[in-house]
Design goal:
Blueprint: E1 11-16, H1 20-24, H2 29-45, E2 50-55, H3 57-60, H4 65-69, E3 76-80, H5 91-97, E4 102-108, H6 110-123, E5 127-136, H7 140-151, E6 156-159, H8 161-169, H9 177-186
Parallel strand pairs: 1-2, 1-4, 2-3, 4-5, 5-6
């Protein structure tokens, strides 16, 4: 396996509220789970820090095991009862400590927690990239409306996860390219 290296200073992957209770409520829940797992695997391979939030985990349960497990040992998790990740105790401090200026975001629910987190990140002078294939909502019309609103923000980019991670690789000569291609081939299993 290729050795991960930090490729882009200031970049982190934020995985919002990928909890079984929410996944079961969405028609696209399994596809979102697989895409979030892929994003975590790709980020870890490329040395991009990964951070999770969980919405009221004492009542709603933890992050789904395979998505959390993709981060390896000692995942960074911030429980929250706010809809924005910025309301989680310690989250803003973690971003500051790690000098994060650009968030890749995946998870649930596009029209609530994703939307509010993205807006607050932008208001905090951060760039945001939403991994469009790794986002989900209970109602597709709500999902689309939130994405359309965020697309109007110049600091917010909407792209599929493979597009983002292939752009980070930049070339087939990248030391992680072959391993990343294996992740791409296996992402829907």
């Amino acid at each position: 396996m290729a050795t991960p290296t930090k490729t882009i200073p200031g970049l982190a992957l934020l995985v919002l509220d990928v909890q079984d209770i929410f996944l079961r409520a969405m028609a696209c829940g399994d596809a979102v789970r697989k895409s979030c797992r892929f994003a975590v695997q790709a980020a870890k391979l490329l040395g991009i820090p990964v951070v999770y939030t969980e919405q009221t985990p004492s009542k709603l349960g933890p992050t789904t095991p395979d998505v959390l497990g993709a981060a390896g040992d000692d995942p960074v998790i911030f429980p929250k009862d706010s809809f924005s990740s910025f309301g989680a105790d310690g989250f803003s401090e973690w971003l500051e400590e790690h000098e994060i200026t650009h968030l890749l975001i995946c998870g649930i629910e596009t029209s609530i927690c994703i939307y509010q987190t993205a807006l607050q990140a932008i208001d905090s002078d951060m760039e945001v990239t939403l991994l469009t294939d790794a986002l989900g909502a209970r109602r597709s019309q709500d999902h689309e409306a939130a994405l359309q609103a965020l697309a109007r923000k110049t600091e917010c980019h909407l792209l599929p996860s493979e597009t983002v991670f292939y752009s980070i690789l930049g070339t087939s000569k990248h030391p992680c390219f072959k391993t990343f291609n294996s992740l791409v081939r296996d992402r829907d299993k």
